């Protein structure tokens, strides 16, 4: 018995390369694009372990949990790490990055998350890219949450390694990701004796065995379902128009903040300009536990995209995810109504 999702023809090298070209078009990049066979943590770790050399110094901007993870990987790779931490309820200021680079001229690698979905903030990448480029450091950007939700122009912004994933605003699969790699990044990777080689983390393997070979023979068996799903969501974005997709996310974010204010819920990220368009984080009223609120709201409707904050924020922060299919006014209204009802029941 055949099954349309199981009995698939092999994914050819030409088909794989065509998907890469569509990703490059989405990013408006002329740099090489590598589509990797795993969730976005795969290329993120590969970029850090390949791009940051042992004994060098890296500036790691921390505005949420992913920035913390990057610092751990950098230290594990033998890199001296200068963490530039900003409160999770705001964006990092470009002036702080500029000051850190001036204070530590030895910095040659900078890591930054564009939009932190977990905390609901987004950072001014274009401005930061200017100061990083002037400094001469390699610039790595985690754009997993921001791609297709807000402007993302890695070439124009001086981003050397730009990692994306399909599972958020793109409305696609979690099991495949991509990274654009600038010529400077390839030089740095090749010059690093500790860069992963003959490894699933290795970008250099993809360059030597795939890109330099004219994209004729894949280095691994392709993940067919994930690649086809990625292609499908790229087709949908192209059909709708990237500007329209980003506008839906911006509208959902604005509606969530406005609706929360009407319900006397305070935004966790104070300034709207620093708020990510993929998720809005909210503070619960005093003595109302966020985890209990989310549990009660989801008990009424398990389909709502609501999550309590992680770690120390579990008791006070609620995240309303409005990305992909959930970037629409009906989901926003249903989410806020469920939160309001739950808070009303739990308020002392």
Give an account of the 3D structure.
With 348 residues, the protein is of the alpha/beta class. It folds into two domains: 13-238, Aspartate Aminotransferase, domain 2 (3-Layer(aba) Sandwich); 241-346, Aspartate Aminotransferase, domain 1 (Alpha-Beta Complex), CATH 3.90.1150.10. It has twelve helices and 13 strands. The chain has helices at 13-27, 41-51, 65-76, 94-103, 125-135, 154-157, 183-191, 203-211, 224-240, 242-262, 290-300, 329-346; strands at 32-36, 57-62, 80-85, 107-113, 115-116, 121-122, 138-142, 161-165, 177-181, 266-267, 279-283, 306-308, 317-321. The protein has a seven-stranded mixed β-sheet with strand order 1-9-8-7-4-2-3, sandwiched between helices. It has a four-stranded antiparallel β-sheet with strand order 10-11-13-12, with helices on one face. The protein has a two-stranded antiparallel ribbon with strand order 5-6. Helix 4 packs parallel to helix 5. The chain starts with 12 loop residues before the first helix and ends with a helix. 48% of the residues are buried. The mean pLDDT is 95.
Which sequence of strands runs across the widest sheet?
A: 1-9-8-7-4-2-3
Q: Indicate the mean pLDDT.
A: 95
* CATH architecture type of the largest domain: 3-Layer(aba) Sandwich
Indicate the CATH class of the largest domain: Alpha Beta
Individual helix count: 12
Return the string of H and E elements: HEHEHEHEEEHEHEEHHHHEEHEEH
Summing up helix and strand content along with how strands pair, one would put the structural category as alpha/beta
Low-confidence stretches: none
CATH topology of the largest domain: Aspartate Aminotransferase, domain 2
Q: How far is it from the N-terminal to the C-terminal residue, by CA?
A: 59 Å
Helical fraction equals 40-55%
Strand-residue fraction?
15-25%
Based on DSSP secondary structure assignment, what is the total number of beta strands? 13
Radius of gyration: 21 Å
Count of discrete domains: 2
Give the overall shape, derived from the CA principal axes.
Answer: globular
Outline the biggest β-sheet: 7 strands, mixed
For this structure, what is the CATH homologous superfamily of the largest domain? Type I PLP-dependent aspartate aminotransferase-like (Major domain)
């Amino acid at each position: 018995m055949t099954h349309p999702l199981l009995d698939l023809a092999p994914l050819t090298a030409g088909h794989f390369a065509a998907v890469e070209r569509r990703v490059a078009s989405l990013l408006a990049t002329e740099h090489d694009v590598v589509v990797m066979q795993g969730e976005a943590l795969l290329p993120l770790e590969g970029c850090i372990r390949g791009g940051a050399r042992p004994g060098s110094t890296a500036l790691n901007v921390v505005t949420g949990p992913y920035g913390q993870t990057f610092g751990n990987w950098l230290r594990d790779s033998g890199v001296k790490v200068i963490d530039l931490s900003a409160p999770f309820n705001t964006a990092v200021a470009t002036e702080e990055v500029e000051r850190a680079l001036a204070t530590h001229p030895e910095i040659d690698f900078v890591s930054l998350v564009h939009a932190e979905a977990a905390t609901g903030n987004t950072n001014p990448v274009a401005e930061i890219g200017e100061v990083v480029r002037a400094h001469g450091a390699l610039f790595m950007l985690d754009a997993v949450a921001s791609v297709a939700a807000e402007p993302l122009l890695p070439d124009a912004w001086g981003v050397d390694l730009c990692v994306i994933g399909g599972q958020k605003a793109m409305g696609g699969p979690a099991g495949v990701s991509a990274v654009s790699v600038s010529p400077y990044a390839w030089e740095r990777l090749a010059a690093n004796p500790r860069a992963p080689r003959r490894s699933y983390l290795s970008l250099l393997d993809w360059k030597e065995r795939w890109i330099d070979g004219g994209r004729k023979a894949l280095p691994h068996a392709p993940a067919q379902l994930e690649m086809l799903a990625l292609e499908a969501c790229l087709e949908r974005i192209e059909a709708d128009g990237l500007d329209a997709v980003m506008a839906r996310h911006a509208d959902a974010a604005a509606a969530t903040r406005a609706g929360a204010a009407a319900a006397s819920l305070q935004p966790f990220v104070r300034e709207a300009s620093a708020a990510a368009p993929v998720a809005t984080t909210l503070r619960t009223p005093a003595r109302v536990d966020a985890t209990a609120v989310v549990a009660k709201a989801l008990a009424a409707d398990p389909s709502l995209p609501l999550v309590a904050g992680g770690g120390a924020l579990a008791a006070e922060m609620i995240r309303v995810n409005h990305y992909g299919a959930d970037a629409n006014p009906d989901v926003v209204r249903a989410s806020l109504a469920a939160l309001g009802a739950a808070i009303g029941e739990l308020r002392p």
